[in-house]
Each structure stands twice: as C-alpha cells, then as structure tokens.
From TrEMBL:
Belongs to the thioester dehydratase family. FabZ subfamily. This is ApeI dehydratase-like domain-containing protein. InterPro entries: ApeI-like, FabA_FabZ, HotDog_dom_sf. It comes from Amycolatopsis panacis. Residues 7-16 have a biased composition (Low complexity). PANTHER family: 3-HYDROXYACYL-[ACYL-CARRIER-PROTEIN] DEHYDRATASE. GO terms for molecular function: lyase activity. Pfam families: ApeI-like (PF22818), FabA (PF07977). Gene3D superfamilies: Hotdog Thioesterase (3.10.129.10). Residues 100-179 form the ApeI dehydratase-like domain.
C-alpha cells in the first residue's frame, strides 16, 4: 500500500452558514486537524433517531442554533470529509442542550492504514478522536466561540474500525462549569466504537516539566523493532530516558514534510490527535519494556484516555518531549500518566491512559 498522502477532494475551507431546508448538508473537508488504537471489546448496539425524527430535523435546518467552524490552521490526518446528516438544534424540552449527527466513510486509501498496521489495517483510535473533534467544529452552538478544546475529558475506545466502515458520530452539547461540554458517541453498523467528551472554555492546563538529558537510549531502529507502527503513523523518534517498569522520556521532531501537511489546505499547527498518538506510542514503548507483560504475539491497544489538557499549538521545526510514568500494572493492562512539552513550554498533559496487551484477533466492527 502506498504511503503517499493524497490531497482531499476539491472542497474549500469557507465560513458556511446553516444550510437552508432541502440543501445538501455541509461536509467538513478535513481542514482542521485530526487521531487511536482501540480497545478490544464489543460495543453495545447503537440506535439512531427514527426516519421521522431525522426528516423533522432536516426540515428545521434553517432554525439551527449552530455554525460551521472555520479552519484553525492545523494539519490534516484523516483525508475523508465529514458529512453533517442532522444539523445542530436544541433538544426539545432542554433549550440549553444541542444535538447533531455526522458521518465519516473510512476509505482503504487513508494514509494511516499503511502504518497502522502493515497487513493488519486498523483505524487508529486517535482517528476516531479526530472524527469527534472535526464533528464538533462542524456543528457547534453559536455560544461556543473557540473551535479548539481546552481538554479531552475522556476518550474510551470500545470497538475496532477497519477500512470500509461508516462511522456515525452523535454530538450532545451542554453548558458545563462556565464553559461547554461536547459528548460524542461514535458507532458503526455493528455497534458503539468510542465515547468521547471534549471541554471548551476553562479547563485543565498542562504543567511545566523539568528539562532532562538529551542522551539517546533507544534510536529509530530500536523503536521500529519494538512497535508495529510504520510510516506515516510512527511518531516517536528516540528515547532519552528509560527506567523499565517505571518511566520513560522520548522525543518527536515535528517537520513540515509530514503527511499531515501534504494537502494544499493544511495549516501549520500539528494536529492535537497526532500529538496524543505520539505520547501514547511513547507509553507503548514503556509498556513493551516492562517485565512480565505482553508476549511475542500480543498486540498493544489503547483502551482509554482521561483528562488530556491541551496547551499551545505545536509547529513544524519544534521538538516535542514526552514524559511517561507507569502508575499501575494489572497483568496485561497498564495505566500511565504524563505530559508533553516544547522546551519549557507545556503543550499536553495526560491524567491517565489505559493500554492493554491482547493476543486474540481483534474483533472487527465492520463485516
């Protein structure tokens, strides 16, 4: 499979308004950043609104309280557009709550499949996170003025998504502690695959970290032997500190040559989901190096993340330092915490991430 990024279809980043009744719903063209390795567990069945409810929602499109987000200048990680199938509107009886529905067709030509994983394509969990972020930008209440969240409160991955699947995202917006919470439920035809909560407004901010040694403990060749990821989704360059079963420090150099900057519409900020994926891969290196876990045929999957604080945007030319601490080991399930920084500037904080080794074949959510 080719690893060359293909430019998106001829769609442009404009500042659209709510579509009039009968008009084609808008699509997010991926102009605003986008990424996961899912947890192996069958999701519960997912029900969509009835046909009559969907028709009434479309008919009331002109009354939508939402707006479509303009580009924030982030790179692109998922090329497929997101389609708004049910415009944002107030929840009947609860005027402060808003709902919307989007869809994404997962094409086999997505660049991430070349590296996640070769011969065993799985749609990364952070791609589902990207789907939720882009859906939130596409359909949000007018009171939500910032298209960039301050925190990923939680992301739980409950199913596997493979090429050819259709991902439906149900959004629920409601005021929360002087800001807004966007809850997203993602599903395919076979059931739920992820639940994600995003925080807009005052939220958790990353803290500063002490500088550490720049010595190389594991180089690129070592990392390739330890992780199944390959280009374009192998996002750790080297490890500078490793205490097996305790902590790890790794670096990632962001460059303008990465696939997320290949399209003409790509901005300069490194996508938030890719930054999280890079940190998770650093945690995976610590997990693989922890005695008594995994096995020769085990696949390490991301089950969930909680309390991910989002700091300043990361730009090409900057080097990100990831710090990972193993807080608990429960057999083949491991819990981590940590953060990321550029120099002394914090850019990301992770309160908890759960990774698990699985030896059985992952269960597909798409036939």
């Amino acid at each position: 499979m080719s690893t060359r990024a293909v430019a998106p279809t001829a769609e442009t980043c404009e500042t659209p308004t709510t579509p009039p009744p009968g008009a084609t719903p808008p699509r997010d063209n991926g102009c605003e950043g986008n990424l996961h390795s899912p947890r192996v567990r069958e999701g519960s069945l997912h029900s969509l609104p009835s046909r009559g409810q969907r028709n009434r929602r479309r008919a009331r499109g002109a009354m939508s309280a939402g707006s479509v987000a303009t580009a924030t200048g982030e790179g692109i990680t998922v090329l497929a557009p997101i389609t708004l199938v049910a415009p944002i509107e107030p929840d009947p009886g609860r005027p402060q709550r808003f709902r919307a529905i989007t869809r994404l067709a997962v094409e086999a030509t997505e660049p991430v499949f070349a590296g996640h994983y070769p011969g065993r394509p799985i749609f990364p969990g952070v791609c589902l996170l990207d789907c939720a972020l882009r859906s939130a930008r596409l359909a949000r209440p007018t009171a939500v003025t910032d298209s960039r969240p301050t925190e990923i409160e939680s992301a739980r991955f409950t199913g596997i998504v493979v090429p050819g699947a259709i991902v439906t995202t149900e959004l629920t917006w409601q005021p929360r502690d002087e800001g807004w919470r966007c809850s997203a439920r993602l599903s395919t035809g076979d059931g739920e695959v992820a639940t994600i909560r995003l925080r807009y407004g005052p939220g958790r901010r990353p803290e500063q970290h002490e500088t550490v040694s720049a010595d190389t403990v594991l180089d690129a060749a070592d990392i390739r032997r330890m992780l199944p990821h390959r280009y374009p989704i192998l996002l750790v360059d080297r490890v500078t500190e490793l205490a097996a079963g305790e902590r790890l420090t790794a670096t990632k150099a962001v460059t303008g040559n990465e696939f997320c900057y290949a399209a003409d519409t790509a901005g300069t900020a490194y996508p938030v989901p890719l930054l999280l994926e890079s940190w998770v891969q650093a945690a995976a290196l610590l997990a693989v190096g922890t005695p008594g876990t995994g096995g020769a045929d085990a696949l390490l999957l991301l089950g969930s993340v909680t309390g991910v604080g989002i700091g300043k945007p990361v730009l090409p030319g900057e080097i990100v330092t990831h710090r990972v601490i193993l807080t608990r080991s429960l057999g083949d399930t491991l819990l981590f915490e940590g953060g990321s920084s550029v120099g002394a500037e914090p850019v990301q904080a992770v309160r908890q991430a759960v990774l698990a080794f699985r030896t059985e074949e992952p269960r597909s959510t798409h036939a």
